[in-house]
């Protein structure tokens, strides 16, 4: 009986010690989590060196109306040395974004950053099988720092791939592919201009786009399609304006590639179309070709609530 009491006493002490240890562990875990979030915020704050651009009343009225802007395009996509007919859609909308978690915020909180999000999609066929491409870029509406996040997914019958760049202390690139030579990648890059963020910046302040010679990281889509190394490349950019339109062109000498985006000179700087000239195909079938997108129609609507069968007819208004 005495031994039983001693055993029970020891068990109680041990149980108490485990509980205390667990509580301390939880506290340490919470502290660690808070430290990570704090570090993420600090790294972003270090990058914010430019003052926030003041938003005009016209800008706020257009982009904070509770609607998204959806624009459809006819697409001639260069792939495997041939042009493929398809269509592209660009969806722009403002959202609150959590920089530490790198996701859209579910509710209001002091740490939210207002971003202009672009979801850009392409669909086309290569022979018997289809390609489906989508990129998402979250860019601060005040145009005072790099995109907080950009991602790409691509599906076709050979498999699917996903890649993402997170803006933290550096650009953190993650990629998953079904190709053995690419497989799973995790690399860090020094911060510089992202081609993906150009499409957002062009809608906010096109005259402040980078021009002349500078370094830029090509779009995740181009890197994937051409199986090109993701890194900063030297480039040259210029803006030409004529007949109420502005054309912003970026040329990559090393990649033998030029991207030209045409927008309206006046607000809201709608994207009327673009061309992308680059080497398409591989081996003896490789040649310089030009992808071309031409605007069909643009509408403003809260599409996320238009998901019933009766709403299907709305696609007609986009020519899709």
In oligomeric terms, what are we looking at? single chain
Instruction: Tell me the fraction of residues in β-strands, as a range.
Output: over 45%
Give the count of structural domains. Answer: 1
Sketch the topology as an H/E string, one letter per element: HHEEEEEEEEEEHEHEEEEE
- Would you tell me the structural class of the helices and strands? alpha+beta
Total beta strands: 16
Report the total helices: 4
Mean pLDDT metric: 87
Gross geometry: globular
Which percent range fits the helix content?
10-25%
Give the low-confidence spans: 1-45
- Whole-Å distance between the termini? 84 Å
Radius of gyration: 24 Å
Sheet having the most strands: 16 strands, mixed
Structure commentary:
This protein is of the alpha+beta class and 320 residues long. It has one domain (44-318). The protein is 22% helix and 45% strand. It has a 16-stranded mixed sheet that branches.
Summarize the structure.
The protein has 320 residues and is of the alpha+beta class.
How is the topology of this model organized?
Blueprint: H1 2-47, H2 57-63, E1 68-79, E2 82-98, E3 103-104, E4 113-126, E5 129-140, E6 149-156, E7 159-167, E8 171-176, E9 184-189, E10 193-194, H3 195-204, E11 212-217, H4 220-226, E12 233-242, E13 245-252, E14 257-264, E15 271-280, E16 287-301
Parallel strand pairs: 10-11
Antiparallel strand pairs: 1-2, 1-16, 2-3, 2-4, 4-5, 5-6, 6-7, 7-8, 8-9, 11-12, 12-13, 13-14, 14-15, 15-16
